[in-house]
Amino acid sequence: ERLVELCVGLARALWKTGRDPNRAHKLAERAVREMTAAGAKDDAAEADAWLRRHYAGAPRRWLRRLLGIGR
User: Which residue in 57, 54, 51 sits closest to 7, CA to CA?
Assistant: First the structure.
């Protein structure tokens, strides 16, 4: 359980700092899978909602960041 919480926290930190959005996505997906398997449905739903909010349209944001557009 603690490892899953750390995955979610690290995913959020990676996303917020823009350091490694791909890793953040993988960590958040892993956390959702682990929470679901453990029966922690509320926690899984919360992590999944975060994942959906932050990754809807993400490829466009990453491309803009790479190209330096909109800074």
Answer: 51
